[in-house]
Amino acid sequence: MKINKIKFQNFRIYKGENEILLTPNSSKNISIIAGKNGFGKTTFLTSLIWVFYGKMMSEVEEKYKKDIKNSGGYDKFIRTLLNRAVKTDYENNEKTSPVFSVEIELKDILIPFIPCKSVVIKRSYDFKSDSEELKIFIDGLENELTKEVGYEVFINDFILPREIAKFFFFDAEKIVSLAEAKSKSELKNLSKAYSEVLGIKKYEDLKKNLETLLTKLRRDGASPAQQTKLFELTDTESELIKLIDFNQDKQANIDREISSYKITSDSIQEKLIREGNGVTLEELQKMKSERNILKEESTEIKNKLKKLMDIAPLVIAGKKLVQLKEQLISEQNANNTSLDKVTLVKELNSFTATLLKKLETLNLDIKAKSSVEDIIKKTISEKESLKSHDTSDIILLDYTTEQFRSFDAVFNNIKGTFSSQFNSVVQEEKNNRILLFKVYNQIKQAEARKDNPLAKKLREEKTETENRITILTLDKGKLIEEYDSLNSRLASTRKVLSEYEKNFKLAETDQKKFVVTEKLLIKINEIIKKIKEDKKYSLQKSIMLGLRKIMHKNDFIYNVRVNVVDDVMDIDLLDKNDDVIDKDSLSKGEQQLYATALLKALVDESGIKFPVFIDSPLQKFDKYHSKNIIKEFYPAISEQVVLFPLLEKELSELEYDYLKPNVNKVFVIENNNNGSSFKPYPVDQLFTHLKQEQDVYAN
Predict the structure, then answer these.
(1) Using one digit for the tens of pLDDT, what is the confidence trace for 367-402?
(2) Angle between helices 201-220 and 184-197 (to 10 degrees)
(3) Of the residues 274, 445, 667, 682, which has the maximum number of CB atoms within 10 A of its CB?
């Protein structure tokens, strides 16, 4: 399917009738529609969403849902699409038709059971009568089949389902939302789109229909008395579901507010930095707290140093300390020797007394006995009078054993670990002093400009913004608690309802239908599970292939894992250690690369042949990745690709040269007082036109 031409009439900035002829080419699939900011590139995409989906456009993208809500509903939003000049002329009673429309012609379209060459879709709105009209022509004629199924249903079922339109009409700068989705509601919304793209939704719809049929059959068996209780339970279930949906909407709104305030806070911080004072009051308090901690550490370090300095004189003593140690050892040895002599004398005396006693048993004569006693006593006397003439035995200090042990411990400490301890404490003190000096300087600089009126005002605004973020975060926390409570009540109600329904007696025919439906439901659940598993691995492979083609760092993302849990599908990026990479840690450019690869994989897996429209195509990419995107992504994403670049910013001349072999048509959006219009250019003259325009302004 390709788009041949698009015609605008009074749609926003496109005043009057403006037609753009794309004329698809099988060998060159890219068309360029360039224009300056505010000339109508985004309006172009909005017009396409509107012509296809009308009041259902809010289901395509959050942006349109928000625009419609801010306008006060679709009926008021649609009146903002009329060109302002035309609206003014009409309100001034000038003869102007206050009608705007968008018409699109599709070629090479395949519709089951309807052979055709072209399909034209035209949606218009009459400001005067406040009426919207949609027409579909197949080969120039209205078709009964399209009328029978309904035009809106025909577009959704045979052209492009609105649930996946975001993957074919997208702002490349904003698709990072795919990489940032984290909350359960965001993941559920994405999962719905994934299911549609991957062809799972039709099976899930069939499953829901079977579940509804089972519920209907079960409840038809309720008696009149049981119907009252049944209605109470179903009403409670319905109310809880509404409250849960309302709660999720409020959470989503808070998330958007928090995101907005964070952007504001970052912007204020940048202004503070430019003012030379990017320090908030909280950061200043944190620095002062750090200063106090460092001061306490400094006191502790000085106490440790003081203890070490008490030992320093002993270290300085050096050789004298060694001599002291030797003297003390000598004295200790002398004391030990003295103790040994006393013990020896006692032992000898005891031995002598025993020996003399034993001599009496020998019956010696008096003279012999006297001689033996004299010899023994003389020997003992010599031993008692024995004295050492060694100088080391001279007692100078007379340390007790406990005092000697204390000195020995100090001596061993000095000889062993003192040096390393002292150096460590000195280095610790030095580091502490440097950090303390740094913090003092930071505090001084922060407080030096505290009286700057602009910086003061900015700090106040930042504080208010941060406080608002805190309040919103607390509000969200309460909503989460409420959400959990509501879910618990809903689960409890459904359990009671399920148990209650078991008491209903089904008619015989309904019982047979119930059994058949249950069997079908089991089979369809198995089919869905199998399809999801198959698609999961296929999608993983496609995403990884896309990343390898367009990412400059080949080893950054090593693998991709698609997780399917119940009705939620999520995608993990893995590093070479098989650890999950936090998508928040990716730069905006990397997030856009990932989202781009995901889009390419989804479009490939969908099998849907539809043109892809890309606004801000190279906004966040560096020159290396831009080259990969231009060569590998855009030519392959679809049989027809339409890019809306801002020349020299989102598409340089060098990048255009890479793209040129695949370019079929080139248009420049020009603007004057009457509105915007399209001017075609030869493919090789796009930047020639730009240079000519710059020369005109230069002169």
Answers:
(1) 777 787 778 777 777 665 654 444 445 667 667 777
(2) 110
(3) 667
User: What is the C-alpha separation between 22 and 30, in angstroms, rounded?
Assistant: 10
Helix H or strand E encompassing 665: strand 663-672
pLDDT of residue 392: 44
Taking only the tens place, the pLDDT of each residue in 612-635 is: 888 876 555 556 566 767 777 777
Indicate if 593 and 618 belong to the same structural domain: no
Q: Find residue 7's DSSP bridge partners.
A: 19, 103
Give the domain range for residue 239: 224-277+449-504
Contact 625, 589 (CB under 8 A): yes
> Do 33 and 669 meet the contact criterion of CB atoms below 8 Å apart?
yes
The residues pairing with 563 across neighbouring beta strands, listed in sequence order, are: 570
CA angle 60, 64, 68 (to 5 degrees): 130
* Residues 102 and 125 reside in one and the same domain: yes
- Whether residue 142 lies inside any domain: the answer is yes
The answer to whether position 185 is within a domain reads no
Percentage above 70 pLDDT, the chain: 81
CATH number at residue 199: 3.40.50
What's the one-letter identity of residue 595? A
pLDDT for the residue numbered 456: 76
Partners of 124 in the beta sheet? Answer: 101, 133
Q: Are residues 205 and 257 in the same domain?
A: no
pLDDT at 21: 92
pLDDT band at 125 (very low <50, low <70, confident <90, very high): very high
* Interior/surface letters 231-260, b for 16+ CB within 10 angstroms, e for the rest: eebeebbeebeebbeebbeebeebbeebee
The reply to whether 519 falls in a domain is yes
Instruction: Examine residue 657 and state whether it is found in any structural domain, yes or no.
Output: yes
Domain check: are 490 and 522 in the same one?
A: no
- Greatest mean pLDDT among 122-126, 206-210, 423-427, 527-531 lies in 122-126
- Residue 580's closest CA among 604, 553, 562? 562
Q: How many structural domains does the chain have?
A: 4
Cβ–Cβ under 8 Å, residues 54 and 152 = yes
What's the confidence (pLDDT) of residue 696?
42
pTM of the full structure: 0.58
Angle between helices 453-501 and 201-220 (to 10 degrees): 50
